[in-house]
């Protein structure tokens, strides 16, 4: 015999409430980044610094990416109640993070090509002026990091208050914006080092060489972010500890009968919220989908479950 849960109500599709603090923070950082981007690109061109230009180009991609992060928060909040999004709108934020990572990788490639070109075609650099602009850029990056850090702390505080016993999961959209800012700060530091070496010791080759080093660092950060966001987008969650929790709760739920999960699918629908669909073979005639729901309810991160029960005489592994 086969039974299915037949709820008499419409499931709530808002599995992740969104983060207004993060939305406001990313919007503020976007405008700050745009302003500094314009200053650095113009200054890099005027003072003929590849490292400074690289920092400015970096910021152009960051301005787009951080703006995309802010838009993603707004879009996820706007469409949160839209029934067309079967499992909520959280993945709008994840898609934004993935796109940001791709942009970050693209700008790293552009930095390498531009730096290699400058090695073979060196140009005179106005070191002192370029260093001043790079230092201002670094200060701006620090301010942006503080803004995003506060938004991150606000999110952490909310998560810990609501779910004290569960591990924290990163907001991938906010993380992508933060990585962009940190990458920009690192590039600014490297630019200052390169300009100082050229100014004090005449090492003109250091400017493009540092540009390449910065590109490699950015590419590594980009790769890590692509993996994290790609994992969420592709629903690769079956190695997550929550899967073992579900198996343990369901299969050990009856002390007097054999129960076995024969099919299980788990995927993330929020920063720390999961949905699952499972089929169960059992010789416990009293086991119902409602009872399994109650068993799963002890884990707050499981916010949605579709359960299929097969009542059989013999349980086969």
Keywords:
single chain, 317 residues, alpha+beta, Alpha-lytic protease prodomain-like, Alpha-Beta Plaits, 2 domains, 4 strands, 63% helix
How would you portray this structure in words?
With 317 residues, the protein is of the alpha+beta class. The protein folds into two domains: 20-233, Up-down Bundle (Alpha-lytic protease prodomain-like), CATH 1.20.1510; 238-311, Cation efflux protein, cytoplasmic domain (Alpha-Beta Plaits, 2-Layer Sandwich), CATH 3.30.70. 63% of the residues lie in helices and 10% in strands. It is built from eight helices and four strands. The chain has helices at residues 20-47, 50-78, 90-120, 127-162, 172-201, 206-233, 241-251, 289-296; strands at residues 2-4, 259-268, 274-282, 302-311. A four-stranded mixed sheet has the order 1-4-3-2, with helices on one face. Helix 2 (50-78) packs antiparallel against helix 3 and helix 2 (50-78) packs antiparallel against helix 5 (172-201). The protein is elongated, with a radius of gyration of 25 Å.
Give the name of the CATH superfamily of the largest domain.
Answer: Cation efflux protein transmembrane domain
Domain module count: 2
What name is given to the CATH topology of the largest domain? Alpha-lytic protease prodomain-like
How do the strands line up in the largest sheet? 1-4-3-2
Q: Report Rg.
A: 25 Å
Low-confidence stretches: 1-10, 158-168
* Overall geometry: elongated
Kindly estimate the percentage of residues that lie in beta strands according to DSSP.
5-15%
Measured distance between first and last alpha carbons: 19 Å
Task: Specify the structural class.
Answer: alpha+beta
CATH class of the largest domain: Mainly Alpha
